[in-house]
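In the previous chapter we treated chains in isolation. Here, by contrast, the input contains two separate entities that must be folded as one system, with a combined length of 559 residues.
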Amino acid sequence: MGDFKFQNRREFLKFTLGSAAAIYGLNSHAQNNLLFEKGFTKLTILYTNDQHSRIEPFPDNDAKYAGEGGFAKRASLIEKIRAEDKNVLLLDAGDIFQGTPYFNYYHGEIEYKLMSLMQYDAVTFGNHDFDLGCENIVTQMPHANFDFINCNYGFEDTALVKNKKISPYKIYKKGPLKIGVLGVGIDLENLVDIKYTKGIIYKDPIVNANKIASILKNEEKCDYVICLSHLGYKYDTTKVSDMVLAGRSENIDLIIGGHTHTFLEAPQIVLNSNGKEVQITQVGWAGIWLGKIEILFSSYNKKSLQNNKNIRI
Amino acid sequence: MKARVIYLFLSILIISSCSKNYLKQKADFTHYSLKQDPESENAKITIAEYKIKVDAETKKVIASSYDILIKDAEESPLGNFVCDALKYNGEKEFKNLPIDIVLFNRGGLRVNLPKGDIKIINIFELMPFENELILVKISGEKLTEALQTLLEKRHPFLGLKIKAQNNTLVETTINGSFIDKTKIYTVVTSDYLANGGDNFLFLKAPVAIEKSSLKIRDALINYCNYLTENKKQIIPYTDGRLQISK
């Protein structure tokens, strides 16, 4: 029943927006204004994962990705998008570190500096972010003007204990929207040398993600809940992944994933434990792609939601 | 008056209960492929101060290779080269000699080495990790546990000769004799693997351990320098240390 309603509303929206644009020949900017006036609010989510210290584009002799990626190109692109879109959320799903000599010589300093320049809002931890240990993250954090979000690592016995930049979730107010962001990380055993992960406690990502997502949706009344995940897209085994998490989740709308370096052309849709759609996305690695999601929200209050039930197109 | 107050109270109540929420109606997913886009001047300025040092260090030519060294092969020429380099460095670093075996993990070799000039950047790309050279002594019994993994995962090794049919071990020898389960063998590897990384669990809890502070990457650079100083080129080779019949 509920699904049927959504289907209609979506079709309705597609129809109205499409015809408005067709009739008036509007450009996207004008369309945005039109939507805004009609009570729709647009959120633009920009995202990366597994940047792996690829500060400069791949070298010209690279067999696969010659000339692709590069932080300076991404910075100018983001600047351009920000000039057009008002409500922009910029996120990363982990493994910022490791992969080029920039990390070996400077230990993540330049990665964090450039991401601060691009005004990233939040990141989650990938396994390679621990490649020089928690102490190194603490050393580099003064260069990071963004939040670190994770709800399934215990840092009590590490240098990251009570770190003010780390939290299980954050709420970002973009225009009138309240966007909840949580983060989950992969089991570090066998991925990172134990001399660097000593003291980090790995906790069940599904249990903890659901706990936080419920806070964000039900208590904090967020309009949309995003999970930054470094679990990996999917595996042949029963190992927990974004696919597994999505299917067993509640209250998560979107998973921005990483770790498996998967280039997803279109979002993977999974039904959660309540039969609601969760979308999973991931943009490969090394900043070859910058992901972009444009979401339209309509405002409602209790009364109008009541009325909506009776709308039939 | 009273009615007015009640009216006011009611309107406040209505307004506050009607605080807006937002419902997703439509989500469009796209992506930008970053190729020919212009670069941000600000970002370029930030990068420039770091790039000078990185470029100066990494563009030095340290060796020359007769041909490409491939990482993914049944017996990999790149794996053999890395094992030779670790043995060369191990003999200088450790007192616990002689070295019987060198073990490495295939996943730890990140890229092939090109034909021709080998620059420091190539070694960085091959070995971006900060792992260090280490020596461990393990029993022949533990070493036996390692064989199946070495075979299945095609991990690089030196000092053993493994014969197999598909993924079944047929015969393993070390210096021409079978592995003695009670004997202690000296293994040079990386500290990451010695800590059980990449499922090298058989290296955990060794009989003896000797650490170095030499990074694997620096060990490879040392070996390249040694070859060049001795006017030697890198020659990719395999020697049948892993023989698999179908």
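The CA atoms of residues 1 and 7 of chain B lie 10 Å apart. Helices of chain B lie at 2-17, 41-58, 77-93, 120-126, 140-153, 191-194, 216-229. Compare these points with the single-chain example from earlier in the chapter.
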